[in-house]
Amino acid sequence: MKIYNTLTHRYEELEPIEPGHVGMYTCGPTVYDFAHIGNFRAYVWEDLLRRTLKFLGYRVTQVMNITDVEDKIIAKSVAEGLTLQQVTEPITQAFFEDLDTLRIERAEHYPRATEHIPEMLELARRLQERGLTYTSHGSLYFRIDEFENYGRLSNLENRQVMSGARVDSDEYAKDDVRDFVLWKAHKPGEPAWDSPFGPGRPGWHLECSAMSMKYLGKSFDLHTGGVDNIFPHHENEIAQSEGATGQPFVKYWMHAAHLMVDGEKMAKSKGNFYTLRDIREQGHEPRAIRLLLLGTHYRSPLNFTFPAVAQATAEVGRLDDLTARLDREPETVGRNGSFDGVVSTALDEFSSALADDLNISGALGAVFRLVREAHVAMDKAELPRDSRRGLRHALERLDGVLGVIAKPALEPDAEIDALIGQRNAARASKDFAEADRIRDDLVARGILLEDTPQGTVWKRRSAPEITPIRRGPTPRCREPPMPSRSIRRT
Ligand SMILES: [Zn+2]
Q: Do 303 and 37 meet the contact criterion of CB atoms below 8 Å apart?
């Protein structure tokens, strides 16, 4: 697979450190509010990348952080008189629901920042040991001047003053405007953790370095994010990680361009700001939203418009028409194998397009050509059983990457009831082997049985639950007392 590497500014052959296995880190959400469609543009693209790697035969270990302590979260918790967790948990749950809505595959790990404070402190301690930090007013800062390679990713001159870069209001005491905070000193009314640098909380950049290296190792293959993450966030991640380990941090960096709405930057003030939920409430099919979000090459800005949603809906409809027709129309006789060439050409084109830095228009072109040719073959009654099976199999493989084709209807309830009846009959006649076989068969289809005194009840297995990873003790966060809502007299 060839990808465009932001670090080297070149197209490169992807060669994972461990052959056949890609370790991939994706910057995740800050959970203070519902994610918007611009965020989902990046998450859908990262899902396309993940699924493409798997389609091409790689094993993938993906890590996405959940930022659950940060200025905006703290501001919301103070404003609403809630604990950090009361702010972040519902939003985190909503985020996972949105991922499911858009059929985004789950990453292997979703580490939460507040559960990795020891790892962050350890990283900060190592940076201090190597002389790359200084303290000022109780905060610990990274000294950019001491890190030679700073600016390589964003292509900035080391000495250039980055005007326009957001300077945190907490960071008034820095020696150099480019230095960034590793550990923020405790401020009254804010949550804090104990640390060797004094009570405080981690800087945002520190969490991504600490958690990516914890789950993927000191050096790993792929790091993704939006272009707005390149500077300063990813630049700072490199500085912290390589500064601490002395080893190369990430081999390949990939970044997605922005999403625009009707050709304009999305902003609440312009009334063109949408969360996924806003679009869903207008009745749009999630598969169409997914297709629209993944249909523009990731390095080009995506223009989100409602006519484009309608067009994506029509395209999803074309895929549904074909699967419905394959289900509905009787099989025809005809020369077996006559359609196989069309199918294998489509698969080849699809695969080589995606292997070329995720050329999605090439890949979708191959899919819709296949759909058109399949309709023509069926019109002419030239799609015999074998070819039809081959076509279905190909559609399944293509959809393993795209995730937009309707899933086959669930097992009808009547069929499950009939099987449960057969199992009960087997049990009554003491044929337990047969009863177990039927139960195992149902479990394999995602049907769980429970034998109760009132008879056998069943339910469908729901999607796997997310279990947060908790390893080792995490220092307790001292939440400040609830703010009193007194009026300040001036
Ligand atoms: Zn990050």
A: no
pLDDT digits (tens, 9 = 90+) for 396-442: 999 999 999 986 555 567 778 888 989 999 999 999 999 999 988 88
- pLDDT tens profile 157-191: 544 445 444 444 444 567 788 899 999 999 998 99
Q: How far is the CA of 65 from the centre of ligand 1 (A)?
A: 7
Tokens of 47: 């899902």
Angle between helix 235-245 and helix 117-129 axes, rounded to 10 deg: 70
Contact 141, 180 (CB under 8 A): yes
CA 436–ligand 1 middle distance (angstroms): 48
Dist. CA 331 → ligand 1 center (Å): 52
Rounded to the nearest angstrom, the distance between the alpha carbon of 211 and the centre of ligand 1 is 9
Which of 126, 255, 296, 259 is closest to 196 using CA atoms?
126
What are the two backbone dihedrals, phi and then psi, of residue 348, each rounded to the nearest 5 degrees? -60, -45
Buried b (16+ CB within 10 A) or exposed e, 211-240: bbbbbbeebbbbbbbbbebbbbbbbbbbbb
Task: Assess contact for 203 and 214: CB atoms under 8 A.
Answer: no
- Distance, CA 228 to ligand 1 centroid (Å)? 11
Centre of ligand 1 from the C-alpha of residue 205, in Å: 6
Q: Which residues surround ligand 1, an ion (CB under 5 A)?
A: 27, 208
How far apart are alpha carbons 121 and 136 in whole angstroms?
A: 17
Supply angle C-alpha 428, 432, 438, rounded to 5: 95
13 alpha carbon to ligand 1 midpoint, in Å? 24
Q: Is the pTM of this model over 0.85?
A: no
Distance CA 206, CA 119 (A): 10
Cβ proximity of 39 and 95 under 8 Å: no
What residues are paired with 449 via a beta bridge? Answer: 458
Beta strand extents in 289-330 (DSSP E only): 302-304
CB neighbour class for 137 (10 Å; exposed up to 12, middle 13-18, buried from 19): exposed
- What is the 120 CA–ligand 1 centroid distance (Å)? 13
